[in-house]
């Protein structure tokens, strides 16, 4: 595939559009792209004789020729009261709620939602009594889900204990104590992740405590999923058009500046497609923003075929997927190593092209100029885009709509950004959200399916043997431990510095095939050392590899040639694969930083009597009491070179 990369663009990306004025604005909302055509030549789309404009700029929607205002009111709380024995039954661990048409139920916390009778919609995912209950994490990291009766549901459902029946549907909320609410103990930045000071929203009723609370009044910094009328219309229309089986893969590309609602629209569209009766194809998501991905960890891009809806705060490791391909980049921004980014993206694009009977949704990075525009142009050059969704409040098209030669068959849908709320909503910064998701990942037990946010230093790390510097491929082939370490962007890091640059850092656990090792034959031997065998990043970039997950390096023991790590991945399966001799393990370090709270937690260092006093220690083992700013290989945490085991 051709890599349409401009070196200038890679160094000159921008987060926002130019303020340059243009003549002639698009007023039609949906059109077919014309390569090189002037924007005024784009025709208004027609569906069954109906022309429509769904709200760019002036937020006007045209249905059958009649204009209507694009209705957008932010939802801050439930729009009805819960009255015991009338429309809600409080159980020991459950709340059973009857919903009438127009009722919107907003619930924060952790719970499993299921439908007892009727048809309900949870953030555009339609559920019936036969639908499996869905686990929901409704935290302040994302908009809170909205539960409502699906449109057109007859009001003829009743349930014992609910005197206000009949209802359009009856849903049940069940407490789910996965201990995710303990995250603020480790990461105090999130102390209001679920709770809120001076709130009248109750987490208990008549002695029953729940892991969730219905919002009957608004709370600071909380907003529910609010869908403009134009979005709702297009979600339904796209579900019908994309769900038609015609042996063609359908690809939807979502573009727009940061904070315009791209991720929200993608999740709503994915949920709509998963629950649409007309959709016979699989739904896969190409997640290409390594800074704020939804379906993989930060520093990665991925292609995931999802089988469960995306509701509330999405944790990539809990989403049900039939297939998944993850590429580790090691950086949160594509423009740091643009050539490698496009190389890894091309491998995912190849998987999209070879997939059968699928609908692929692509959430582009929030840059629409510079290298961000190059990425979008690269996608257009290598994929047949079915629908292009532009989210913007500008009175004109984004530059990428006018300047990129889109296929004439590409449908362009123009929608308003969903950020027009006048309500003060201060979201967490991208850094805090990334840290929260990484901490959740590192502290999740996939076997028990609960989180343990006790500091990792309280646990014994895994010990892995590593290979010392060698160019002997036969030696690598016979070694079942870590055959090599690669440090991305490692200018100035010597072989002797490798152990210290790894300690207290995130590393990726990747494997390569035995045959791939053959390409290392004849590489320049490294100086004799007790440090791990170093492999160039150019080799890692150029060969196929399998990403297994992230780990934190606890310490490097150069005397015994072992690396001690913490990781939540399935180490048993990985060990079996390595023992078979078909795969070889590498550690790859990017520039991801471990949150200070992970290594130097306030749980261990503050209080009347520090935890470590019980062991006769003045500070946690392996970590200096006073941290320094010395940087080696991108490392910013001071550590004590001590590999003593507990």
TrEMBL record:
Bias kind Polar residues: ranges: 24-41
GO CC terms in record: nucleus
Q: Which UniProt keywords apply?
A: ATP-binding, Kinase, Nucleotide-binding, Transferase
Could you mention a single GO BP entry for this protein? cleavage in ITS2 between 5.8S rRNA and LSU-rRNA of tricistronic rRNA transcript (SSU-rRNA, 5.8S rRNA, LSU-rRNA)
Q: Name one GO molecular function term.
A: polynucleotide 5'-hydroxyl-kinase activity
Q: Name one Pfam family in it.
A: CLP1_P
Q: Where is this region: Disordered?
A: 15-42
Note the coiled coil stretches, chain numbering: none
Domain spans labelled Clp1 P-loop: 256-443
Q: Which SUPFAM superfamilies match?
A: P-loop containing nucleoside triphosphate hydrolases
Which InterPro entries has this protein been placed in?
Clp1/Grc3, CLP1_P, P-loop_NTPase
What PANTHER family is this protein classified in? CLEAVAGE/POLYADENYLATION FACTOR IA SUBUNIT CLP1P (PTHR12755), POLYNUCLEOTIDE 5'-HYDROXYL-KINASE NOL9 (PTHR12755:SF3)
| Recorded family membership | Belongs to the Clp1 family. NOL9/GRC3 subfamily.
Q: What is this protein called?
A: Polynucleotide 5'-hydroxyl-kinase GRC3
């Amino acid at each position: 595939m051709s890599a349409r990369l401009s070196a200038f663009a890679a160094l000159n990306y921008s987060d926002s559009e130019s303020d340059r004025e243009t003549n002639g604005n698009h007023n039609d909302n949906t059109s077919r792209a014309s390569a090189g055509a002037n924007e005024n030549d784009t025709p208004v789309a027609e569906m069954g004789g109906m022309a429509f404009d769904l709200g760019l700029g002036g937020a006007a929607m045209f249905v059958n020729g009649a204009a209507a205002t694009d209705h957008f009111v932010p939802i801050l709380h439930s729009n009805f009261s819960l009255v015991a024995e009338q429309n809600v039954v409080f159980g020991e661990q459950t709340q059973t709620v009857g919903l009438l048409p127009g009722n919107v139920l907003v619930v924060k916390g952790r719970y499993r939602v299921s439908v007892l009778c009727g048809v309900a919609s949870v953030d555009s995912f339609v559920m019936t009594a036969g639908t499996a209950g869905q686990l929901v994490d409704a935290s302040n990291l994302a908009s809170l889900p909205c539960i409502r009766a699906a449109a057109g549901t007859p009001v003829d459902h009743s349930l014992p204990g609910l005197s206000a029946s009949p209802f359009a549907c009856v849903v049940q909320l069940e407490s789910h104590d996965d201990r995710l609410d303990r995250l603020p103990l480790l990461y105090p930045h999130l102390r209001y992740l679920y709770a809120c000071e001076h709130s009248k929203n109750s987490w208990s009723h008549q002695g029953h405590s729940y892991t969730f609370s219905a919002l009957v009044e608004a709370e600071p910094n909380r907003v529910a999923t609010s869908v403009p009328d134009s979005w709702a219309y297009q979600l339904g229309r796209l579900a019908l058009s994309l769900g038609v089986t015609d042996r063609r893969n359908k690809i939807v590309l979502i573009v727009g500046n940061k904070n315009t609602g791209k991720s929200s629209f993608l999740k709503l569209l994915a949920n709509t497609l998963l629950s649409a009766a007309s959709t016979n194809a699989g739904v896969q998501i190409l997640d290409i923003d390594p800074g704020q991905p939804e379906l993989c960890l930060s520093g990665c891009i991925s292609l995931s075929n999802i089988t469960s809806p995306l509701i509330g705060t999405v944790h990539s490791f809990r989403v049900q997927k039939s297939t998944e391909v993850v590429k580790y980049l090691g950086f949160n921004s594509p423009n740091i190593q643009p050539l490698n980014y496009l190389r890894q993206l091309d491998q995912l694009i190849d998987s999209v092209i070879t997939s059968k009977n699928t609908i692929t949704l692509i959430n582009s990075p929030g840059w629409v100029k510079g290298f961000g525009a190059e990425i979008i142009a690269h996608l257009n050059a290598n994929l047949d885009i079915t629908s292009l969704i532009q989210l913007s409040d500008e009175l004109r098209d984004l530059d990428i709509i006018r300047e990129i030669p889109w296929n004439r068959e590409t449908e362009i849908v123009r929608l308003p950004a969903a950020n027009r709320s006048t309500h003060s909503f201060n979201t967490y910064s991208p850094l805090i959200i990334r840290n929260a998701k990484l901490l959740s990942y590192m502290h999740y037990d996939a076997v028990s399916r609960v989180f343990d946010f006790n500091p990792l230093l309280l646990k014994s790390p895994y010990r892995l043997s590593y290979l010392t510097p060698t160019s002997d491929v036969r030696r690598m082939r016979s070694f079942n431990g870590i055959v090599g370490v690669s440090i991305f962007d490692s200018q100035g890091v010597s072989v002797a510095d490798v152990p210290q640059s790894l300690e207290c850092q995130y590393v990726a656990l990747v494997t390569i095939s035995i045959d791939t090792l053959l390409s290392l034959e004849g590489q320049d031997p490294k100086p004799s050392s007790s440090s791990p065998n170093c492999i160039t990043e150019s080799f890692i970039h150029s060969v196929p590899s399998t990403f297994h997950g992230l780990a934190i390096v606890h310490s490097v023991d150069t005397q015994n040639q072992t690396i001690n790590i913490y990781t939540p991945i399935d180490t048993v399966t990985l060990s079996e694969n390595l023992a078979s001799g078909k795969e070889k393990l590498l550690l790859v370090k990017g520039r991801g930083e471990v949150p200070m709270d992970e290594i130097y937690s306030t749980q261990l260092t503050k209080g009347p009597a520090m935890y470590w006093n019980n062991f006769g220690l003045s500070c946690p083992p392996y970590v200096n009491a006073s941290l320094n700013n010395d940087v080696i290989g991108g490392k910013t945490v001071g550590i004590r070179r001590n590999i003593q085991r507990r």
